[in-house]
Design brief:
metal-binding; RNase_H2_suA; globular; alpha/beta; 13 helices; Nucleotidyltransferase, domain 5; six-stranded mixed sheet; RNA-DNA hybrid ribonuclease activity; nuclease; Arc Repressor Mutant, subunit A
């Protein structure tokens, strides 16, 4: 991948209903020398567009390469400057020989489905799972990761303890505003932010809409163009295009106001307990028999065994 045209083609080739990963080759030096790895995300708060998790890694001995590239607090950089830095990471010899990266693009549809399914996954869980998955992928690809630095999701102590349990042989540091403290996290943040920006630029509407990112803005609820999109691009029956995170309160409230009313059957999660009457089968079961735990597949779908058919 040597240009933004390559990045655009790659993104457009993927299914924007779910999530997908884009990654660099692992530099040879990252396989032989101990490396540090940074983790950060982009697009956690917007009502439109994907959330992107990014990691970047490089040898501990080559950390000055990050400073040479200009990796700093990505929030303090302009969009043009972030593009410039990522282009250097993609094309310049020194960067190609020392820096590896992976980005996971998590679609609005995936986020909303996770938050709305019966066994709900919060945005924090989606985020943490992505971070853990990307670290594992870097290791599986052969990178010799010894230190990990993460921009916090929730309380730093709890997050750090979880990562340390999963990766006991790696030094884990979780900190608030880590992208302004650790250049390797800044590099990860730039990978994530630029990937998200360009994912929005080439977003493909499967619903047949003819518009680009200039028509719907940044995706943040306070953006006037985003507000206009949320207000106008609504179908009374089918709701919003897949660009919208329909689990966000901004979208939920507009759906309640403008879409057709829907009634959903409420599932009673409470097991039906009789008033102490034992079934006849209980007299033939071993008293110390442990109840078998249902597989996660059945729990998430509220499936139970039924042997009484008419």
């Amino acid at each position: 991948m040597a240009s933004f045209d390559d990045l655009h083609d790659y993104i457009k080739s993927k299914n924007n209903h779910t999530k997908f990963v884009n990654n660099s080759e692992v530099p040879q030096i990252c396989k032989s020398e101990p490396c540090m790895l940074g983790v950060d995300e982009a697009g956690r708060g917007p009502v439109l567009g994907p959330m992107v998790y990014g990691i970047a890694y490089c040898p501990l001995s080559q950390k000055d390469v990050l400073k040479t590239l200009g990796c700093a607090d990505s929030k303090a950089l302009t969009e043009e400057k972030r593009d410039e830095i990522l282009l250097k990471i993609l094309t310049e010899k020194e960067a190609l020989e020392n820096i590896g990266w992976i980005a996971e693009v998590i679609s609005p549809n995936y986020i909303s489905n996770s938050m709305y399914r019966r066994a709900k996954h919060s945005l924090n869980e989606v985020s943490m799972n992505s971070a853990i998955s990307l670290i594992k992928q870097a290791i599986e690809l052969g990178a010799n990761i010894k230190e990990v630095y993460v921009d916090t999701v929730g309380p730093p102590e709890k997050y750090q303890a979880k990562l340390s349990e999963i990766f006991p042989n790696i030094k884990i540091t979780v900190a608030k505003k880590a992208d302004s403290i650790y250049p390797i996290v800044s590099a990860a943040s730039i990978v994530a932010k630029v990937t998200r920006d360009h994912a929005l630029k080439v977003w493909q509407f499967h619903e047949g809409l003819e518009m680009d990112c200039k028509d719907f803005g940044s995706g943040y609820p306070g953006d006037p163009l985003t507000k206009k999109f949320i207000r106008e691009q609504i179908d009374r029956v089918f709701g919003y295009p897949l660009l919208v995170r329909f689990s966000w309160s901004t979208a939920e409230l507009m759906l309640q106001e403008r879409a057709a009313k829907c009634n959903f059957e409420e599932i009673d999660d409470t097991p039906n307990k009789n008033s102490g009457t034992q079934s006849i089968s209980s007299f033939f079961s071993p008293k110390n028999e442990k109840k078998r735990k249902k597989h996660k597949f059945f729990e998430e779908r509220y499936l139970t065994m039924n042997n009484a058919f008419e």
